[in-house]
Amino acid sequence: MPKAYEEIADDIRRSIREGTRKPGDRLPSEADLAQHYGRSVPTVQNALRLLSEEGLIDKRHGRGTFVRRPRTLAVRDNGRHQWEKNRARAPEATRAETGVTEHDTGLRVDDLVFYARYREIEAPDELAAVFGVRVGTLLLERTYRTRYAAESAPFSLVTSYLVREMIAANPDLLDETKEPWPGGTQNQLHTLGIEVDRVEERLTARPPTPEEAKALDLPAGTSVILLRKTSYDIRDRVVDVTLVTLPGDRTELLFTTSLERW
């Protein structure tokens, strides 16, 4: 038998999903809800806490509780890397029309706000081993944040690493002001004669750190998905390592596996 606070949460949840309460609508006060449902204020607070953890409502200090506006869903499918490679040799005008974020979300270039920051770091033990270089080798660390202009939080937290010596022949690749780069990393590598042969992705999940929860504006109780992407070229060299933190409340991972016929 459901508990009293679960029944209240079910009723409010139903009103949100059926559209009786719309995104941005303010809920009655906790005291008014308690009177409406004939329950105590602590029972109502438990119901609201449950809905907040589900990402359906937001409690704003001093203003009240509001129906949360649904975030734009990003669908990352296993064809996105081939899609990017197919465009790596296309004319710049074609590459500039859309990128992988637009591919994942269905948004347009003009819908997005993009941020990039570059810095050089010395390769720590783990990254040196992955790239097959000496510890302390200079790497270019690139931090990316892309968000929908109508929202405050980015789709993901992205940090990418390249061996500086490998890309130094094209000075533009060291310049963060050239971002967003039409065609992304695969086109950047193509300017150096590097062709990506395969991309390995490893996925794990965990609760977010406080910094991640704040940066991604995560509802309480929402996990993050950690994606580690390693790109290899046709000479079997690791040419890029990218670490991506994805919000679990608005990311869908879609994998389609074609099987050989008997």
Quick structural overview:
The chain has ten helices and ten strands.
Outline the fold blueprint:
Blueprint: H1 4-17, H2 30-37, H3 41-53, E1 57-60, E2 64-67, E3 74-77, H4 80-87, H5 92-96, H6 100-105, E4 112-122, H7 125-131, E5 138-148, E6 157-163, H8 164-167, H9 184-190, E7 196-206, H10 210-216, E8 224-233, E9 238-247, E10 251-254
Parallel strand pairs: 3-10
Antiparallel strand pairs: 1-2, 4-5, 5-6, 6-9, 7-8, 8-9
Please name the defining characteristics of this protein:
Arc Repressor Mutant, subunit A; 10 helices; six-stranded antiparallel beta sheet; 262 residues; Chorismate lyase; single chain; alpha+beta; 10 strands
Characterise the protein shown here.
It contains ten helices and ten strands. The protein is of the alpha+beta class and 262 residues long. It has two domains: 4-67, Winged helix-like DNA-binding domain superfamily/Winged helix DNA-binding domain (Arc Repressor Mutant, subunit A); 74-254, Chorismate lyase-like (Chorismate lyase), CATH 3.40.1410.10. It has a six-stranded antiparallel β-sheet. Strands 1-2 form a two-stranded antiparallel ribbon. A two-stranded parallel ribbon has the order 3-10. β8 and β9 form a beta hairpin. α1 crosses α3 (41-53).
